[in-house]
Amino acid sequence: MRTSGRTLSRAVWAAVTATGLMAVSAGTAVAVPASASGLPRAAASCAYPYVCLFKDGVKIGQFQDVTTDWQPLPSQPTGTITITNTRLDDTAHIRFSTGSTICLPPEYTIDVAGPLTGIRISTAATC
């Protein structure tokens, strides 16, 4: 995976993660670059061209297919879920049980609060 060249210090990483978790409850989220220095260790095990979901450092799902419809997540993971988009030019859309959605840009990782109900990978390069 390419690194974006953008790095975050630990303090900024913690602030962005906390802000992202608070914003998720309002239906939005903050994504952070999936660079070598900012990528959580568990998320580093997500190979290109997948979008992976992790809970407590364990991969609980990976998706590769570009779809026009939502791919359901039968387990509807809850708690803090780390989502990594290793794709270079595609966005990943995540749906929550509330019906709200977020968009994850290419090569980004984010922590969100579930439950999650669906994922859709789009060929759009930006959210």
Distance between the termini: 20 Å
Q: What strand line-up does the widest sheet have?
A: 1-8-5-2-3
Helix content: 10-25%
Strand content: 25-35%
| SSE pattern, N- to C-terminal | HEEEEEEEEE
Structural class: mainly beta
- The 3D shape can be described as globular
**Rg calculated over all Cα atoms:** 13 Å
Number-wise, the strands total: 9
Major sheet, described briefly? 5 strands, antiparallel
- Number of helical stretches of at least 4 residues: 1
Q: What are the low-pLDDT stretches, counting only 5+ consecutive residues below 50? A: 1-40
Roughly what is the average pLDDT, rounded to an integer? 75
Structure overview:
Helices cover 12% and strands 35% of the residues. It is built from one helix and nine strands, in the order H-E-E-E-E-E-E-E-E-E. The strands form two sheets. The chain has a five-stranded antiparallel β-sheet. A four-stranded antiparallel β-sheet has the order 4-9-6-7, with no helix packed on it. Residues 1-40 have low confidence and may be disordered. With 127 residues, it is mainly beta.
Summarize the structure.
The protein has 127 residues and is mainly β. The chain contains 1 helix and 9 strands, in the order αβββββββββ. A hairpin with a 2-residue loop joins strand 2 (51-55) and strand 3 (58-63).
